[in-house]
Design a protein that fits this description.
The protein is an alpha+beta fold and 190 residues long. It has five helices and five strands; from the N terminus they run H-H-H-E-H-E-E-H-E-E. The longest helix has 31 residues. The protein is elongated, with a radius of gyration of 20 Å.
């Protein structure tokens, strides 16, 4: 809830103030014509940074639509790893769930991607599915590797184990992970 409140504070005050400053600079520029263009670039960059920060803290769509929040999260990963193949399937409709639970799921996915991508050997492709089965939410994340030895990394397994325990505790759900041939699979259910 603290992240939600911080994100709302940024959206309701700082973003509005940056918009007001931008408008004020435009009026000054029109009336006096001597405002350096770099001021406009700086205020635009500041505004965009604040908007990104508020969305990282708590995406605006999260309380209403988990799949859309996941899609928004994955955009940054797609941009950061353009050579990596992503196979993503998210439903268009989703049940209403507590925003706190959705935030834990979103954070777990982001953390799993961070843990995996911080290892020396990157996967060749990533498979992500979100679905409902008997009113149980299921998120499947599978990483495929060209090199089998890349799967066994003690630090990764330790971090994933901590992530799994945190997920179980915070959602009363399950997190199962397994190695199979040239892939590492994670199944989150809640």
């Amino acid at each position: 809830m603290r992240q939600f409140q911080e994100a709302e504070t940024i959206r309701d005050s700082l973003l509005q103030e940056s918009f007001t400053i931008r408008r004020y600079l435009e009026i000054l520029s029109r009336d006096h014509g001597d405002i350096p263009q770099e001021y406009f670039v700086t205020i635009n960059n500041w505004h965009q940074s604040l908007a990104k920060l508020s969305d990282r803290l708590f995406p605006e769509c999260l309380p209403d639509h988990l799949p859309l929040a996941i899609e928004f999260l994955l955009e940054k990963w797609l941009e950061s790893y353009p050579n990596l193949e992503f196979d993503i399937l998210l439903p268009t409709n989703w049940r209403v769930e507590a925003a706190e639970c959705s935030l834990v799921i979103l954070t777990a996915l982001d953390e799993l991607l961070r843990i995996t991508m911080s290892q020396p050997s990157e996967p060749t492709s990533i498979y992500i599915r979100l679905k409902l089965k008997n009113n149980i939410g299921i998120l499947i994340v599978r990483f495929y590797y060209s090199n089998v030895s890349a799967l066994v990394c003690r630090s990764r397994l330790t971090e994933v184990s901590y992530l799994s325990e945190s997920f179980k505790f915070l959602t009363s759900g399950k997190c199962i992970f397994q190695m199979k041939q040239q892939s590492m699979s994670y199944l989150f259910s809640w």
